[in-house]
UniProtKB/TrEMBL annotation:
It comes from Melghirimyces algeriensis. Its cofactor is pyridoxal 5'-phosphate. Residues 1-20 are annotated as: Disordered. One of its GO terms (molecular function) is transaminase activity. It comes from the Bacteria. InterPro entries: Aminotrans_3, Aminotrans_3_PPA_site, PyrdxlP-dep_Trfase, PyrdxlP-dep_Trfase_major, PyrdxlP-dep_Trfase_small. Keywords: Pyridoxal phosphate. This is Glutamate-1-semialdehyde 2,1-aminomutase. The keyword Lipid metabolism does not apply. Belongs to the class-III pyridoxal-phosphate-dependent aminotransferase family. SUPFAM superfamilies: PLP-dependent transferases (SSF53383).
Length: 457
């Protein structure tokens, strides 16, 4: 008996060039991609160029981009001010990178201290991953305790200490999450050193923290889960009070929310200040970046004035110990130039309001289109990011997303890609300052066509 032919994926007819390149890429890179998150079925689309709110693929198709490099491009693609500033900076310096301290580091550090409430002192990194990794090391050095408490469904980058319980697994409400590694190679030792907490469920969180309070050296969370599930204010405040009371450093991972939900991040929006903050994405204006900021006395643990430089082997007279933090490209001048220009643009009057208004319009109208076509879907979000969840239950935590109709959402995403709306399937929608009324209207037309196709089945 012959096996039935696989149904043709909605994308396949218009993305033959991507399919061909993907077949080749598989021979040279594991799974044909250079980051696991970039894969989706049947194959990722190979893009060639971008402008404003649009991406263009190798087959000549256009897409309105709602991935925006996983939220990083708050000003959209090819912002002319950023481009000009970066070119000018290169010419002025005569090189892309000096490999020494320079004034742009100083300028950006001052801006972050001015804008982000919990930041009194700053270190730059090359990615969000490095920022959370450094923040965790600082926190544990400060508290002198080993265990890390993180939240179910929260992502902090792809390294051992936090690659646990990012994937959501079924669990009964009120039951503590079972600690599970999400990657091969994460050791049992690390699993044992990790405590996993349920977001927006203070009673269970407090119960778990009480059991482990003597050994927890850091609590880290995304203040807005996955960039779109808002925190209950009381939950955030309770967590802040608890960690303060027991001397456990609280880290806000604002890699997604920093400069997305406002210039002062989620901590400014909700009025809850952490001890340490990790930043990234928007801060780089489209270039790879990260930063850690926090309480001065904590940050000072990283000062080489305490004990010298471990690589040269020299020790200072005081002979104290230092918390090591370094990186060849930390504080890269081209990147900080792009970041400073981005902040400057976002400081213009009404800059956030107009993106938030566009986001709100899109959310409301998408919900209406779904309803008109007989689907029950919510556009859940904060500020300039939202996600579509097929359920009528309030979405307060990871489990609520797990319980939603994800298969339906996945099918819709395939149709949306085919209609020219670019999102990573099942992922968030992020907007930018160039998603103006025309792009939004065009998106809604394409969205309705996708929903109608979903209805047809
Ligand atoms: C909240 C959060 N933290 C950390 C990271 C890791 O940042 P990067 O990919 O720049 O290493 C991400 C990336 O998506 C993120 O969303």
């Amino acid at each position: 008996m012959s096996t039935p032919a696989r149904p043709v994926h909605p994308l396949q007819n218009k993305t033959r060039g991507s399919a061909k390149r993907y077949e080749e890429a598989k021979q040279w890179m594991p799974g044909g991609v250079t980051a696991n998150i970039k894969y989706f079925d049947p194959y990722p689309i190979f893009m060639e160029s971008a402008s404003g709110a649009y991406l263009y693929d190798v087959d000549g198709n256009d897409y309105i981009d709602y991935n925006l490099c996983y939220g990083a491009l708050m000003l959209g693609h090819g912002n002319p001010q950023i481009l000009e500033a970066v070119q000018k900076q290169f010419e002025q310096m005569g090189t892309p990178v000096l490999g020494t301290p320079h004034e742009l580091e100083l300028e950006m550090a001052k801006r972050l201290v001015e804008l982000v409430p919990g930041v009194e002192s700053v270190r730059f990194t090359n990615s969000g991953l490095e920022a959370t990794m450094f923040a965790l090391r600082l926190a544990r050095a400060w508290s002198g305790k080993k265990k890390v408490a993180k939240f179910e469904g929260h992502y902090h980058g792809g390294y051992d200490q936090v690659l646990l319980n990012v994937r959501i697994r079924e669990r009964k409400q009120g039951m503590p999450p079972y600690v599970c590694a999400d990657s091969m190679g994460v050791s049992e030792e690390i699993r044992k050193q990790t405590v996993v907490l349920p977001f927006n469920d203070w009673a269970t969180t407090e119960q778990i923290l009480n059991q482990e309070v003597c050994s927890i050296g850091a609590v880290i969370l995304e203040p807005v889960q996955a960039g779109f599930i808002p925190p209950d204010l009381d939950f955030l405040k309770n967590l802040r009070e608890y960690t303060h009371h027991y001397g456990i450093p609280l880290i806000f991972d604002e890699v997604k929310t920093g400069f997305r939900v406002g210039l002062s991040g989620a901590q400014g929006r909700y009025g809850v200040t952490p001890d340490l903050t990790a930043l990234g994405k928007v801060l780089g204006g489209g270039f790879p970046v990260g930063a850690v900021g926090g309480r001065r006395e904590m940050m000072e643990l990283a000062s080489p004035l305490r004990s010298g430089d471990i690589l040269s082997g020299e020790r200072n007279q005081e002979g104290g110990s230092t918390l090591f933090h370094s990186g060849t490209y930390n504080g890269h001048p081209m990147i900080l130039t792009a970041g400073l220009k981005t902040i400057q643009a976002l400081e213009e009057k009404g800059a956030y309001q107009s993106v938030e208004d566009a986001t709100m319009r899109l959310q409301k109208e998408m919900e209406m289109i779904l309803k008109r076509n007989g689907f029950c879907g919510q556009a859940v979000g904060v500020g300039t990011i939202f996600n579509l969840v097929f359920s009528n239950k309030p979405v307060r935590e990871a489990q609520d997303v797990l319980d939603s109709e994800r298969t339906l959402r996945r099918k819709l995403d395939n149709f949306l890609l085919e209609k020219g709306i670019y999102i990573k399937p099942l992922n968030r929608f992020s907007l930018s300052s160039v998603h103006g009324p025309e792009a939004i209207a065009e998106t809604l037309t394409r969205f309705e066509a996708g929903v109608k196709q979903l209805k047809k089945g």
